[in-house]
Amino acid sequence: MSAELKAEQEFSKVIRDRHSVRKYDPSWTISDAEIKEILEEAILAPSSSNLQPWRFIVITDPDVKAQLLPIAHNQAQITDSSATIAVLGDLEAYRNAETIYQYAEAAGYVTAEIGAAMAKRSYDGYSGMPAERLKDIALIDGGLISMQLMLAAKARGYDTVPMGGFVHDSFKELFGITERYVPVMLIALGKAAVEGRPTARLPLEAVTHWNAFQA
């Protein structure tokens, strides 16, 4: 089955209705065009110095899903969902600074002079950082875009579940991913066969402090 669930929803409803879904309708297909629309909204997420270190692998081929399944500890949503989207972080995203500011210049956001200066500042600053710091940044930015992706999907009536439970080395080997990139998470995307279970949240007072912190 293939169709589009483009029911626009208010943001407050989207964030309250989004739950992790692990059982999907395996007959439901989301078109490549609609997946691209979801990703187009996801990439509007913020990132450190706007370096946009995220990269995606959209996995829809049943044979590739079957190869991924044991790597993801046989989680059924890998094969039953319409797509599994792998989110990667680029540890050398600073190499794209010049290109990013060229786009910004073309859009009229910066002058050529300012864009070149900002690109150089980003390259010089990030290229000198320790590898562990670059990994931290890539994981943080990868988390930001992953959440935005899941909300964009829910706004269209689809469901998702983020998965950190997979063998990273085997995943990288399967897709030929170099050491420049770090896996952030896998996100199953599709039409729920069973609705996600609501979960309890700690009260706001238990997690929020004002002007100080008390453990």
From TrEMBL:
Domain Nitroreductase per the UniProt entry, residue ranges: 15-191
A Pfam family this chain is assigned to: Nitroreductase
Molecular-function annotations in GO: oxidoreductase activity
Keywords assigned: Oxidoreductase
Keyword field contains Oxidoreductase: yes
Database matches in InterPro entries: Nitroreductase, Nitroreductase-like
Keyword Oxidoreductase belongs to the record: yes
Family listed: Belongs to the nitroreductase family.
The protein's name: NAD(P)H nitroreductase
